Request: fold
Amino acid sequence: MDYTIAVIKGDGIGPEIIDATIPVLEKICKEYGHRIKYEYLLAGGAALDEHGEPLPKKTVKKCKECSAVLLGAVGDPKWDSQPGNLRPEAAILGLRDSLGLYANLRPAMVYDELEYASPLKHEIIEGGLNILIVRELTGGIYFGKRGTEVIGEASGIGKFIDHLRGEKTLPPGRFAYDVEQYSEFEIRRIANVAFEMAMKREMRVTSVDKANVLESSRLWRAVMEEVHVKYPQVKLDHMYVDNASQQLIKAPRQFDVIVTSNMFGDILSDEASQITGSIGMLPSASLGDGSFGLYEPIHGSAPKYAGMDLANPVATILSAAMLLRYSLGLGAEADAVEKAVKDYLAMGYRTQDIMSDGMIPAGTRECGRLIAEFIGH
Reply:
């Protein structure tokens, strides 16, 4: 079969981890008789330098013409002074919105070979850990109304601000707001994704919210219950986000699928990444309706390591495995990549982020090369 994938290397270590991943995909093509064409595109800081904007229209157009998008990472402190819409990170939000990607899947696994790297006690994670966080991606506070205003004696924004603050009168000065908002439609579709994923796993969903405080969370919880009726085989429970953040550390094995809002999912998935031992090991998939998706490691661009051949490309390689599975429908090929990663770890190879005594050092390029070699063996 022939496929076309949009590839956005991005900034910092992005180009290196992508360059370490492509040989893995090429080995899959060789072993299974496929052909992949790569459409290399710009987004993030690289696009800012080249085109003066983080997400050129050409990039979005080309992405829509491909089967999937493989992304490295974007961002660098050199663009920190840019306004929000001209920062590299705006490219990620723009891609998710433009491509209709509303469901972010973030698996958090502890490999047996990396149990030593987890900050949790052995008895807490003994027997393995496999959590899937389903994060709503295009709603909530990240996409709600926002702004910064100056409150004066004759300010026209005063009544609106008083409404937002519950009629609490504020003294003159600067006022900033970000509105958390969700529609029933947005909650219902992410709930369906979470329950469908649970049906293929251990049949358990934990919905995380802040329903004791937030009106949007109360609607979230109500809709989750309504969708649950269609999935009686799945056990559903609810948990406040502050408790969930504690339970991930105290008793992470109680979780199977966690479904939550955009901001809560952002925070909890990063926390989950740390209990697995390294943020460099965890992939993600951003999906919409149909098979199209965007795949990227959950870590950032780590500009201080750029060009040093130190970055761990495993998260990107596992993201490519998710691409094979969810967008191209190549389950056996995805399994082969995941097995190759396990074989690589079992042989004792480690990048600097997960290095320990007695292990064999491997740089970014070498890691990609070795995992590619393990495919088919």
